[in-house]
C-alpha cells in the first residue's frame, strides 16, 4: 500500500510504501446444491458460502463435474444420467486454495423405449432409492396399464408417457407401443 502525505503549510509531499499481508482462512468455505437429488435432464444451483473478505470478485472460483452431472461457469448443475454425480468447487485466493465436493444423485427410468401391443416390459428407477409411484398420462391409460412395481402392459399402438415419482423427484419416459 502506498500512502502520500502532503503538508498543508508548504505543500511538501512524501510517499510511504507499506507491505500488507492478508491471511485468508478458506477452511470455512461451504458448498451445497439446492437439490441433492434430481431427475435426469433437470437442473439445480450450487450454493457457495464464503468467509468474510472473500468474494467472487477477489477470489478465483472454478467448477468441475464428474459422473452423472455437468456444471457451468456460474455453478448451474445439470443431471445427465442416472447415478451419482460430483461437483468439485475450487476457491483460490492469496496463494491458498481449497476444494469442496458436492454429491448429487440423479434418477432416471430405465427399461425399453418400445414394446409391442399385448406385450409387457419392466421399468425401473435407477440412480435414487425409494419406492416409486408409477402412473400414465391420460392418453396413456387408454393404450396401456402400469403396475405398482413398474410393469407396463401395452394394449394398443401409440405413445404413452410414464411417470415415476420417488419422494419429491418426478421422472418421465415416453414409451412407443408398436402393433
Architecture overview:
With 179 residues, the protein is mainly beta. It is 3% helix and 58% strand. The chain contains 1 helix and 18 strands. The termini are far apart.
Query: What is the helix content?
Result: under 10%
Strand content: over 45%
Shape: rod-shaped
Computed CA radius of gyration, to the nearest angstrom:
27 Å
Structural class: mainly beta
Distance between the termini: 79 Å
How would you concisely characterize the structure shown here?
The protein is mainly β. Helices cover about 5% and strands about 60% of the residues.
Task: Give a topology summary.
Elements: E1 2-6, E2 13-17, E3 30-33, E4 37-39, E5 43-49, E6 60-67, E7 69-71, E8 76-79, E9 83-93, E10 96-110, E11 114-116, E12 120-122, E13 124-126, E14 133-136, H1 138-143, E15 144-146, E16 151-154, E17 158-166, E18 169-178
Parallel strand pairs: 4-10, 11-18
Antiparallel strand pairs: 1-2, 3-5, 5-8, 6-9, 7-8, 9-10, 10-13, 12-16, 14-17, 15-16, 17-18
Q: What keywords describe this structure?
A:
179 residues, mainly beta, five-stranded mixed beta sheet, four-stranded antiparallel beta sheet, 1 helix, 18 strands, rod-shaped
Amino acid at each position: 500500500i502506498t500512502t502520500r502525505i502532503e503538508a498543508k503549510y508548504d505543500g511538501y509531499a512524501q510517499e510511504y510504501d507499506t507491505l500488507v499481508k492478508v491471511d485468508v482462512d478458506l477452511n470455512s468455505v461451504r458448498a451445497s446444491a439446492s437439490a441433492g437429488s434430481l431427475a435426469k435432464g433437470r437442473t439445480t444451483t450450487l450454493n457457495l458460502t464464503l468467509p468474510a473478505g472473500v468474494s467472487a470478485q477477489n477470489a478465483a472460483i472454478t467448477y468441475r463435474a464428474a459422473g452423472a452431472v455437468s456444471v457451468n461457469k456460474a455453478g448451474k448443475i445439470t443431471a445427465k444420467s442416472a447415478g451419482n454425480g460430483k461437483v468439485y468447487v475450487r476457491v483460490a485466493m492469496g496463494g491458498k486454495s481449497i476444494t469442496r465436493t458436492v454429491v448429487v444423485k440423479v434418477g432416471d427410468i430405465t427399461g425399453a423405449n418400445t414394446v409391442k401391443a399385448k406385450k409387457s416390459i419392466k421399468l425401473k428407477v435407477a440412480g435414487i432409492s425409494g419406492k416409486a409411484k408409477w402412473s400414465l398420462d391420460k392418453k396413456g391409460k387408454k393404450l396401456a396399464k402400469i403396475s405398482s412395481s413398474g410393469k407396463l402392459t401395452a394394449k394398443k399402438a401409440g405413445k404413452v408417457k410414464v411417470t415415476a415419482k420417488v419422494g419429491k423427484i418426478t421422472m418421465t419416459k415416453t414409451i412407443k407401443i408398436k402393433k
